[in-house]
Amino acid sequence: MSKIPMHKASDPTEDLASALDEAGCLVVTDMFNAAARDRVRNELEPHMPEAAGLTMLDDPDSFYPGCTRRTTGLIARSEQAREFAVHPVSRALYDHHLSANCEHVRLHVTAGLEVGPGARKQILHREEDPFSFFPLPRPNLILASMWAISDFRADNGGTQLVPGSHRWEAGREAQPDEIALAEMPAGSVLYWLGGTLHGAGANISEDWRYGVILTYSLGWLRQEENQGLAVPSSLAATLSPELQTLTSRTMHDALGFFDPRIGS
Length: 264
What we know:
By secondary structure, the protein is an alpha+beta fold. It has helices at residues 13-23, 34-44, 74-77, 79-85, 88-98, 227-230, 233-236, 241-246, and strands at residues 6-8, 25-29, 68-72, 105-115, 142-148, 160-161, 180-181, 189-193, 198-199, 209-218.
């Protein structure tokens, strides 16, 4: 079976970037502590749907498996998620993989995801699939991250990834021995490039598996999550310049102009 490279957060960032370049995915351990995990859970809990009754709610034809709790809009809902979004390791990796092709990087998706017992595995896909006018293999358009709030194991829904698939030509399908499952302790972060095939794993355990997704994209692309609406203007005005840029509150070259007097 293929393997996902693993590094520590204290390792040189060039080593992390090189491993991600090669495999298209990477686990980085020791990224955040138990206090941060508890904080983000507590901040997001009021926005998560009730777990009761989810066990049998699944449409096998749906892209999103059932038996799962989800919430989006994390910048507005969690101060801890804001800190995750600007973590130095994430910044170094999105600078390396994305910044050569854009003036600013933007947040593409923010979500909390808790996979419950009985959840089926998700179909393998690429973060960059909506941008189908770029032929495969595409240039780097997106960098994704999954923050392990709980342990990720093969039996509790650890993310499926296909190392090396970010370089595949169109039409090639992953074979079972090419699929790896992200196993990492809580406090780790899984990174993958937007061209890497991946999908949530099946949870055949009795535990809920909790992760926070933060993805980044080139600033001139249409972001999947509309950050301009997901982050209220009153909150945006209080954010750091870096977060204001990530949430599309600044222009990208000639793109995104507006009259600040409107709505003031």
